[in-house]
Design goal:
The protein has about 230 residues and is α/β, with parallel strands linked by helices. The protein is about 25% helix and about 25% strand. The strands form 3 sheets. Strands 2, 3, 4, 6 and 10 form a 5-stranded mixed beta sheet that branches. The protein is globular.
Length: about 230
């Protein structure tokens, strides 16, 4: 078993890796001017749940690549590497077992936050349109993660909750669609919206009282409300 050295972790595209290896890449059309979404299966993916903190899990391809398709932001690889090294770690823990059957690992480093979890749901929307059949992996995420998977039609038996490091023989990855670039992939976001609106709870005619969430001092990066006075 090869140990994964934290100092050697780098970011990279596993879809590009699949292309270089001549692997099968399935393309999905969403319309609305959206470029084709790519999906590919990659062999031997290590997964460390809650590697940084609870709900902040990582997946590693080829013992050193942190897939951009799982992290989205360019700074994520450096952030992961620095955070783990600051914790005094030099290697990732050994994986306890190997799990067969294709999966899609859900949960980028920040997806324990409600908004970033939507980015994971867009992966699901894409994969459910492919010929692949897979289960979905989560670890130590808030209750809304599983609830939202249910709302878009993922049965409970297709959701695997992992508590310790494992290696998957095969994992699926899709084109990275996040809130940084979703304007270029509107069909994916519309697809997620349609799935949510079609769910049983959204079809109920009754509505509850409105409520507002005020970010207040928790606003980050200079963000502000566009309709603060309303």
């Amino acid at each position: 078993m090869t140990r994964i050295r934290i100092g050697e972790l780098v970011g990279g595209s596993v879809l590009e890796l699949a292309r270089q290896l001549g692997g099968r890449i399935e393309k999905v059309s969403f319309g609305h001017g959206t470029p084709l979404i790519e999906a590919a299966m990659i062999q031997d993916v290590s997964y460390v749940p809650s590697a940084l903190a609870e709900g902040q899990s990582i997946q590693v391809v080829g013992n050193r690549h942190l897939p951009v398709e799982a992290g989205f932001d360019e700074f994520t690889a450096g952030f992961v590497r620095q955070t783990l090294l600051e914790q005094g770690l030099t290697e990732l823990p050994e994986w306890a077992e190997t799990i067969d059957g294709p999966v899609c690992i859900l949960g980028n480093v920040f997806s324990r936050n409600f908004c970033h979890w939507h980015e994971e749901l867009m992966k699901v929307i894409a994969l459910e349109r492919t010929s692949y059949e897979c289960n979905y992996v989560i670890a130590k995420l808030p209750a809304f993660a599983k609830e939202l998977l249910g709302l878009i039609g993922i049965a409970p038996e297709r959701i695997l909750e992992i508590e310790r490091p494992v290696r998957f023989r095969a994992a699926l990855f899709t084109t990275a669609v996040s809130y940084h670039n979703v304007a270029g992939y509107p069909g994916v976001l519309f697809g997620l919206r349609e799935r949510l609106l079609a769910s049983e709870c959204c079809r109920k005619p009754e509505t509850g009282p409105r409520f507002w969430l005020v970010a207040g001092q928790y606003n980050r990066l200079g963000r502000s409300c566009s309709n603060r006075q309303s």
